[in-house]
Amino acid sequence: MSAPTNSFRGGPQGRPDTDGARQLTLKLLVTAVVGGVVYVLTNVLLPKEEGPWQLVLSVLCGGTVLIVQFMASFVNQLGELKEVVEKRFADIGEATKLFNEVEKLRGDGVPRLAEHATKVVSTGPEILHDFAHEEINRLARQMEKLTNLSADCAGENHEWLINLTEHTRRSIDAVSTTVVDDGFWTSEPAGRYLTAQREAIDDRTVTVRRVFILKEGQDRESLAALATICKEQQEMGIQVRVVPQDRIARRLGRGTMIDFIVFDQAMSYEIKADLMEGISSTTVNADRGEVQILIRRFHQIWDAAKEPQDEPALNGLLDGVPDGVPVLPDGTGPDAA
After folding, report:
1. Tell me: the pLDDT tens digits for 222-235?
2. What is the 3-state secondary structure (H, E, C) of 40-106?
3. How many CB atoms lie within 10 A of CB 260?
4. I want to staple 310 with a disulfide (CB 3.0 to 4.6 A). Which of 15, 126, 286, 306 is the partner?
């Protein structure tokens, strides 16, 4: 740890005071030298003159030199003071501008962030300070990205997903591919996500629609799991439909299919899968043109989909047909009339 400094003394050894004493001593020395030179000159040039005027003249010249030195020093300090004042006024202007911008934000999140950030970086171990600084920088980078109406991150960001759900006022339209969703709906984030959707439906009458896209060649076990998921979400008030992947291909053409959610017809949440069918990145986007593209795609997929009980691959499973009993394409058993 370095020795503490004092803003008035400028360092651990009181360096500005030492410099000030040195400068004062130098001024007095110059004054004495000038006075002595004047006294010697008057005695050399006018040796026959008597009286105290030689001493008075030397003191007067020395005093004049001392006053001139102090005036020069004062002018220098006045210039430095002007620079400091101008800098302070510039800082005040920046602070005022920042304060006016902060006032536009809802709630007290930014003031609380500033208050607690200053507390964190002044207490605890150094690693805590580094962690806090990195979190602040990460948030700053994210806010900077959002000025362009879009932000992304590696992997899946469940906090973004739940945050958007909790602040939705009108509608949530989601397209979920079972390629990406394998295992998600039984995870802890999914539980929080569904809870947020249920509260949105019950408390704010938000309309939630979800289309599950069936990948080709899914076995009966995965279809049964999907049927259970559809039934649970329907019971929560979510409108659920299912569509096979090949039907989407015929309707929309071949291309990359991504999972996406559109919140309030104004902001999208998109997740992209990598070659191993894992989630490579998440993007939130509020660009009107790009969101409109996803809205149109959702409507096309929604129109091509069917209710789970009307989809041949799931209708028997939703009705609780035991394993081993064959299901006909129309969803009935072999003994149906």
Report:
1. 888 888 899 999 99
2. HHHHHHCCCCCCCHHHHHHHHHHHHHHHHHHHHHHHHHHHHHHHHHHHHHHHHHHHHHHHHHHHCCC
3. 23
4. 306
- Looking at the structure, tell me whether residues 233 and 137 fall in a common domain: no
Give the model's pLDDT for residue 9.
45
**pTM of this structure:** 0.64
Q: Of 312, 57, 279, 52, nearest to 182 (Cα)?
A: 279
Domain extent, residue 195, equals 151-318
Around Cβ 157, how many Cβ atoms within 10 Å? 20
| Dist. CA 246–CA 254, nearest whole Å | 9
Query: Is residue 150 classed exposed, middle or buried when 0-12, 13-18 and 19+ CB atoms within 10 A define those classes?
Result: middle
329 found inside a domain: no
| 126 is a domain residue | yes
- Predicted confidence (pLDDT) at residue 3 exceeds the cutoff of 60: no
| Whole-number Å distance between alpha carbons of 321 and 239 | 23
Q: What is the pLDDT of residues 106-162, one digit of tens each?
A: 556 777 777 777 888 788 888 988 888 898 888 888 888 888 999 988 888 899 999
Cβ atoms of residues 213 and 301 within 8 Å: yes
In a domain, 94, yes or no: no
Question: Partners of 173 in the beta sheet?
Answer: 209, 262
Q: Is 219 exposed, middle or buried (0-12, 13-18, 19+ CB in 10 A)?
A: exposed
Tokens 């979800």 belong to 210
Kindly state whether residue 304 falls inside one of the protein's structural domains: yes
How far lies 337's CA from each of 9, 153, 288, 331, in Å?
Answer: 100, 55, 52, 12
- Same domain? For 19 and 133 the reply is no
In the structure encoding, which two tokens stand for residue 212, read together?
């599950």
Secondary structure of residue 129 in the 3-state scheme: helix
The structural domain count of the chain equals 3
**Whether residue 246 is found in the same domain as residue 231:** yes
Q: State whether 27 and 60 are in the same domain.
A: yes
Same domain, 116 and 190: no
